[in-house]
Every structure is written in C-alpha cells, then in structure tokens.
Amino acid sequence: MTRLLVRDLAQLTTPAPGATPARGARLGEVAVVEGAYVLCEDGLITATGAMRELGPLDGDVEELDGRGLSAVPGLVDCHTHPAFGGDRVEEFALRAGGASYEELHAAGGGILATVRATRAAGERGLGEAVRRHRHWMLRAGTTTWEGKSGYGLDRTTELASLRAVRDAGGSPTWLGAHAVPPEFDDADAYLDFALAEVLPAAAEVADAADVFLERGAFDAEQARRYLTACRDAGLALRLHGDQFTESGAVPLALELGARSVDHLEATGPEGISALAASDVAAVLLPASALFLDRPMPPARALVDAGAAVALATDFNPGSAFCESLPLVCSLAATQLHLRPAEALTACTLNAAHVLGQGDRVGRVAPGYAADLVLLDAPDWRHLAYHLGGPVIAAVVRAGRVEWEQ
Ligand code: NIG
Ligand code: FE
To answer: Which residues of the chain have pLDDT under 70?
Structure first.
C-alpha cells in the first residue's frame, strides 16, 4: 500500500457534503478545517480532519509538510482544447489592433489556421503538444481535465487528437463539429463525412461529443443531427452555445439531455430559467470572454436561479490562451460576482459532475480521489484573491506528489 500523509496544513477547504452538483446557495457552502491533515492510501483519500485528532499511523507513510499552506481539492478543468499545433500569436496581435475574432474566422484564419497547423503536426507532434499543455495545467493545479479534438477535422487527425488526450490522462471529447474544413462545400456535406467516417472510431476513444453551435459554424438543425448520431453511438453530449448569439443551443441541450452548454455569454433570461430548471450544466468560461473582450456570461443570475454552474478555462490558441483555473477563479470573483467559495465548487465538484465523475472527484473526503492543491498562503481564498497567482506549493494527484515548487 502507498500512503501519503499531508500534515499540519494551515487550512483544508472542500465543497461541503451534499448532493452533486451543488446548486443555488449550496454552491458557496465549503467546509474549512484549521490545522488539518489529509491521509491518502492507494490513490484515494481515506481520512481528513484536525491534526489534534490524528492518531498514530503504523507502517510506511510518506509525509508532506503543509505548514503555512492551505489545501483545496485538485482543480478540474472540464473544457479545454489542448490538441493543437502552432499558435495564433499573429492573430492575437491583429486583434489587439482592432480586428474581430469572427472576422478573422470568416477570412479563413482563426480556427482554420489552427486546423492547418494541427494537421501538419502529425500524431507524434500532437502527442507532444498535448503532454506539454497537460504539464502547464498541472502546474496551475489542474489534476482532472477534459480535452477536445476539433482542430483536425479529418479522420486521421481527429482520432490522433482523441488518443493524445486519452494517453496524457485526460477525458477525450470529440469536437467533430467545430468548423467546416476547406475541402467541403458546406456544413451538411462535412457532417455526412464526419458521421459516416469518423464517429464510429471516435466513439471508441471519446467520452463525449461537442458542437460549436453559432452563426458561421453549425446551426441548430445541423447540431441536432450531429449530436443525435453521437448520442446513439454512446457519447455524452456537450455544446458550445450562446457565445456570440443565442442560436438555440439551450433548448437543443434540454431536448437531447446534454451534460452542459458552455460559454453562454449571450444567454438571456429565458435561457437562464430553462437551464436552472434542467439537469444541463452551465459551464462558464470567463477567460475566453476576457481574451476576446466580449461580455461576461450572466453567472450571478444563473447561480441565483439554481443552475448547475461550473467554471473552466476553455484553454485554446485562439479565444483563451490560458490554462489557469486560479486565474479563472479571480475572474469569477471580480467579473462574474461569484464568491471565492462559489468559484471553488464550480471548478472542482461541479466541473467533475460535468465530466461524469462527481461521485469520485472534486471533494476532499474519504473515498474521493487523492487529488489536492497546496497553496502557498494560509487562507485558501488566495486561490481567487491572488490575481495571476497564487503560488502553488505542490500538486498531489492520485496520492502522489506530481508537482512541487
Ligand atoms: O471555445 N468557440 C469555439 N471554439 C473555441 C475557440 C477555438 C479557436 O478560436 O481556436 C472556444 O472558444
Ligand atoms: Fe471551447
């Protein structure tokens, strides 16, 4: 048995016990223990509590000194696009000078520029890129993550993307409907190909499917066709929806029983009420809104209405070159008007729920995965307070120290 005792923590903080996902007032309910320990055995948490209650431990135990540090659950990034070649720094500079993201996309840049670079990277290059990006995420405290394909849009590169995510330890999502690649005349012709030629093999590797439902990408009818076929192949469903326009993503997600609609920057009161009354999670991506200088999603209204709200980075080379969930927590506190405790639950327990892992990931409690982030601050709220920080002292994943400062 491998055992790790994280001892003498200044604070240990976790989403409070209760139903998953946490909604409404429960989103902000966290349990805080001062002077705490966490015992991990064979990759799982077996005990937590106050140091003064810790009895003697027999046998071999590795120890991690938590003095002066605070611990929270390993962070869960439920929306990332790590499988890409190249970068979009040129486009970033053009946008800084006034060009819009949608204009660049319409002119064959944007997503399609990354498609060209990703196809050119090859399977080995793609594997290296995903491992590199996964390491960036780990250093920022992310221990569980989803990774989408969607920059291949041909059979070989889409399947290589999904395998690269799986092999790096992520949960793969087939974003087969991200954009229409140049070799097809229109979205319907591309979907004919993707559903016949790629879906059967993608469904063997992926956990979920995703679609970009937006003007200039796929419309609601095309998204329904794609998602229905993916659901029939056994995949869970996600949608990129209401990023720029309300184009029917929320009603479609409800109709098909999707796990989430992600973005929601353009969602109005009807969409908020519909999500709140449903089992479809609202995944908010404030780093993307910031990076594109777009309106922030209606986070406060979604939480207050009772929606299952999660936070994620949307890490990708175009609209959110940001792998840091702590930065997302800072944006949640300063831009979305969520309290630090709400942000914490949204990027741990609720994000794990979006990935179908809410019963075993996202809390510091016996039976959950032994995933922890140790912050170099005695108060865990530095997670959101320290803009561009906080300093992460150590990251524990499956009961092992995977990264240390
Ligand atoms: O979630 N909106 C669509 N897809 C990504 C961005 C992709 C890109 O710009 O490369 C997103 O923001
Ligand atoms: Fe995205």
So the answer is: none
